[in-house]
């Protein structure tokens, strides 16, 4: 245990927790090498994990642990995680994990912003990097001794799109026939696109008029059941009669529907609704349920919202809502005025006596 030389560079030989570590001091100067070695010994004496332990841990290793965690937990966002890891490896791949600093992260952010990436997109990548370090810190023994400060960008991308009923009808009229049931289902239920396109006939009971999703089929891992209204029931019966051998409810000539962005965008252009998103149907369904007086907890069960704050964010307030609020407020004030007039008239019409104050004095 101590210092030894390999060619012109001094190396240190250290034991910690019963394990031997041989690390380069990256110096050919004996005094500098001795200082590095003494620093490691002081860390061990203070019962701290010496920094040299982490020299072999790379960002690539942390990335693989991160993706493994996603696979073990069967997270449906694995594909997105792999994409984010790819971007991080392109920037930090091959580097030691302990070399990652806040300055490096800020430089990464600047590069991404210069390329025109949205803050939300960059934040998803930064969140993956942060998660990688937290997982490494929780390992036994830890693979890193600290989590670098990773700043996050301010996001201002909360979309507020929704469909008025006439817009929904206009879009449905110009969509291809095989997509009409898809957007009708989304407009009525507020389900996510993936939940709709992955729906299979085993989950549909046409006798009871219900549709069920298991706990592993929803984003929040909670089972869900809805009852079909007359319009949805009509669509379901038509789809069932034309299903062929396809196990999926929503199909195109007996084949599962996977993507329809081109058809969607073309229909939006024809309907004069450029910029509308399929997800706007989800927001619209939530708003419609709230306007219809559906209890909040019931609406959340239908749309699949697990937390109230997200459900409330989807309860969009637009100009028409504000006009309606102003109208109701004015009607309330007018009703108060009418009630006051009736009270004044009632008091004014009371019979007067010499010992009673006048009605006008009483009101004042």
Question: What does this protein look like?
Answer:
- It is a single chain.
- The chain has 364 residues and is mainly α.
- It folds into 4 domains: 2-56, no CATH class; 59-138, DNA polymerase, domain 1, CATH 1.10.150; 165-314, Orthogonal Bundle (hpI Integrase, Chain A), CATH 1.10.443.10; 321-350.
- It contains 15 helices and 8 strands.
- Helix 3 (78-92) crosses helix 5.
- The protein is elongated and about 105 Å long.
Write the layout of secondary structure elements.
Blueprint: E1 2-6, E2 9-16, E3 19-27, H1 30-45, H2 59-72, H3 78-92, H4 102-114, H5 119-138, H6 165-174, H7 180-189, H8 193-197, E4 204-205, E5 210-213, E6 224-227, H9 230-241, E7 251-252, E8 255-256, H10 261-270, H11 279-291, H12 296-303, H13 308-314, H14 319-348, H15 359-363
Antiparallel strand pairs: 1-2, 2-3, 4-5, 5-6, 7-8
Structural class: mainly alpha
Overall number of strands: 8
The major pleated sheet works out as: 3 strands, antiparallel
Beta-strand percent range: 5-15%
Number of domains: 4
* SSE topology string: EEEHHHHHHHHEEEHEEHHHHHH
CATH superfamily annotation of the largest domain: Intergrase catalytic core
What's the end-to-end separation, in Å? 99 Å
Q: Give the overall pLDDT as a whole number.
A: 83
